[in-house]
Amino acid sequence: MSRILFVTATRIGDAVLSTGLIDHVLRTESEPRITVACGPAAAGLFAHMPGLERVIVLRKRRLAAHWFGLWRQVVGTRWDLVVDLRGSLLAWCLSARRRAVMGRRRAGRPRLAQIGSVLGLDPPPAPVVWTSAHDRARAETLIPPGKPVIGLGPTANWRGKVWAPERFVALFDRLSGADGPLPGSRAAVFAGPGAEEAALAQPVLAALPRGRTIDLVGRLSLSEAAACLARCALFVGNDSGLMHLAAAAGAPTLGLFGPSPVAEYAPMGRFTAVAHTQVPVTELVSAPGFDPRTTGSLMGSLAVDDAFAAAMALLDRARPAMALT
Fold first, then answer.
1. What gap in Å lies between CA 190 and CA 150, rounded to an integer?
2. Mean local confidence (pLDDT), 168-185
3. CATH, residue 30
4. Where is the domain boundary, 67, 84, 117?
């Protein structure tokens, strides 16, 4: 049996991108038993992971005291492998046969490639999702067979990355219209728990056609969301953890980008594409007064026409393979 400590991200998106590396460890280590340390938002990703021993939730504390708290929980184990994607000193303060620690992040390099390089993997392993039979059964209830479903992800972790609600609705209307690629589709609106997520999703929910909308805002665990996303004919969403989860779940995924770098954070999966603003990211984030905590949407130069064209090209690539599954 191999005892493995895997320290991964606080945010959902980065944690999703790390799942391929864990999957690689599961497939290559002898009888792996994995302890995952991650932020509270990401913990649900690992609930149904094979080989899981436990999840340690790493809640940020003053003066980096959370690292000392984690060290106290894991110092008594002799680890066969410690993987630290946070680049901390923790791995060097533990008894371990092998250590793999993330180095300094390099701007412009795909985040997935940086994660894979920790174990010398090139190309890096693609993200995966782990769901239970209960998750899949609930997904089938929420998204039953029949008309195709277009998943919409209108939220993000800061407002600069949020595409206008009316553009999400306009894009859905074009995709699901009689002349669109997915005529008669239903819309499933995804968002996480909390008032801010609900507030970003509500204008989209309110404007979508009644009787063809599935409200999943704040209703799902991460593994349930993954199971639901896997049933979508297409997912369109802002650059977010949900976008990365959709791609990992196997849904054709269109990521919408503006003030975040496509080269680093484009969705990674079987069928993915991006649509981005006409104004480049460097210009958006260098504008006077820019502050990710307070600046409003910077997605105004991404037109519905451009997103529709990207979705059409994505569906053209995905359809032949999806028809065989």
1. 11
2. 97
3. 3.40.50.2000
4. 117
What pLDDT was estimated at residue 16?
A: 98
Domain limits for position 38: 2-117
CB 9 within 8 A of CB 19: no
In this predicted model, what pLDDT tens digit does every residue of 248-273 receive, in sequence order? 999 999 999 999 999 999 999 999 99
Q: How far apart are CA 256 and CA 174, in angstroms?
A: 17
CA distance 162 to 60: 26
Q: What is the pLDDT of residue 62?
A: 87
Cα separation, 16 vs 128, whole angstroms? 8
Closest by Cα among 93, 89, 79 to 5 = 79
Task: Indicate whether 132 belongs to any domain.
Answer: no
Task: Cite the DSSP H helix spans in 144-194.
Answer: 165-176
Task: Reduce the DSSP state of residue 16 to 3 states and report it.
Answer: helix
